[in-house]
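Retry 2 of 3 after timeout on previous attempt. Resubmitting structure tokens to design endpoint.
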């Protein structure tokens, strides 16, 4: 099929990249919700689906047929993702209409009187494709929302609430028909903000970025468990319960470290996690310990990653209220007015007493580190160079953060 002597399908495919850019720009200028979406999503998913639709229209015109069900799969997947992110359905349908209208303008712009039969047939193809797109997108969006709503308000939500609060699981089973698993991998997650959440006033854009991050975390958790995870997550993190028959491995293929690495890559943000496997009755205590471990990791400046109680035994024990805790913290009182000395001590110990590594982290000369360590010794009477003193200094730093 030709217009102005040129094949419409071939011309549309050749212009698809440039036309995609113009359609995306139009969406950003005409639809506020799209203007507030994360840049990553605009340049990735949204641009991809626009170009896919343009090439689909070229195929429809070239072969003079409706779109097949398989050719609409990407649009359905995209609509389901937008539903999970909370993008309104009317905005999505309007975006498709804008794209179709611009596609038609591009196709018919050089048409003359002799091209009327081709123009009418192409218009008919466009109307059929728009009807198919509206049906596929609306159906996938509403189905995804229904699933999300039922999960949020259904029995799984009640099961998680009962597990976290220590309610009677026998009564819950009688009421909902849901039986708890024999054991649960309990996890507390702390999620760093995504770049698209930072530097913006709160609004739909930041909300979409946060929901997108959470959705990707949940996808990784569901894939690991082989079943939908019980989650209570917001933009900063939260609690996860995964039903397990036995404690999963910590390291190696299929282990928990691999899960956290996958979740970190998928969400695009550092993820700190604490995990412990527990029977249903022990879930509340395990969750409380996990939360405390994640808090200790943050206060002690450790890197993101996966932790268990064994990794923070000293910090955990020293965080228990006691007179000894205050006594240890007081060992560093002479350094309170010297923040550069405290920072040097923390960095020096954190780098395993490596003066060069500590100096690089502090952006000073190694001799400066040596000088500051000698000053710490003079002020406190404690030196990292003496093994007995090193234990006190490490404990005092932990105690100082805990009091």
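Retry 2 succeeded. Sequence:
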């Amino acid at each position: 099929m030709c217009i102005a002597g040129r094949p419409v399908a071939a011309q549309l495919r050749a212009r698809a990249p440039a036309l995609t850019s113009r359609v995306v720009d139009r969406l950003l200028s005409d639809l506020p919700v799209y203007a507030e979406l994360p840049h990553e999503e605009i340049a990735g998913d949204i641009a991809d689906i626009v170009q896919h639709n343009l090439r689909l229209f070229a195929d429809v015109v070239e072969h003079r047929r409706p779109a097949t069900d398989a050719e609409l799969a990407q649009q359905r997947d995209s609509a389901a993702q937008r539903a999970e992110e909370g993008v309104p359905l009317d905005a999505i349908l309007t975006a498709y209409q804008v794209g179709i209208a611009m596609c038609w303008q591009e196709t018919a712009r050089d048409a003359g009187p002799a091209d009327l039969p081709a123009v009418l047939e192409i218009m008919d193809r466009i109307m059929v494709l728009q009807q198919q797109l509206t049906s596929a997108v609306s159906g996938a969006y509403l189905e995804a929302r229904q699933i999300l709503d039922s999960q949020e308000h259904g029995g799984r939500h009640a099961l998680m609430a009962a597990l976290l609060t220590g309610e009677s699981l026998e009564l819950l089973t009688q009421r909902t028909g849901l039986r708890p698993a024999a054991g649960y991998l309990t996890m507390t997650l702390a999620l760093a903000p995504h770049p698209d959440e930072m530097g913006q006033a709160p609004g739909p854009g930041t909300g979409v970025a946060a929901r997108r991050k959470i959705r990707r975390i949940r996808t990784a958790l569901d894939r690991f468990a082989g079943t939908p995870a019980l989650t209570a997550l917001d933009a900063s993190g939260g609690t996860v319960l995964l039903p397990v028959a036995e404690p999963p491995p910590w390291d190696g293929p299929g282990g928990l470290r691999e899960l956290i690495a996958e979740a970190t890559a998928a969400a695009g943000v550092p993820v700190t996690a604490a995990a412990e496997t527990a029977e249903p009755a022990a879930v509340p205590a395990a969750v409380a310990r996990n939360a405390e471990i994640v808090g200790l990791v943050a206060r002690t400046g450790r890197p993101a990653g996966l932790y268990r109680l064994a990794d923070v035994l000293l910090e955990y024990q020293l965080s228990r209220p006691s007179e000894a805790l205050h006594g240890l913290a007081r060992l560093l009182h002479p350094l309170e007015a010297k923040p550069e000395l405290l920072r040097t001590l923390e960095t020096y110990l954190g780098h395993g007493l490596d003066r060069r590594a500590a100096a690089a982290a502090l952006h000073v000369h190694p001799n400066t580190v040596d000088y500051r360590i000698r000053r710490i010794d003079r002020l406190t009477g404690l030196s990292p160079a003496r093994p007995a003193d090193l234990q006190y200094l490490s404990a005092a730093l932990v105690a100082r953060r805990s009091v």
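Attempt log closed. The radius of gyration is 29 Å.
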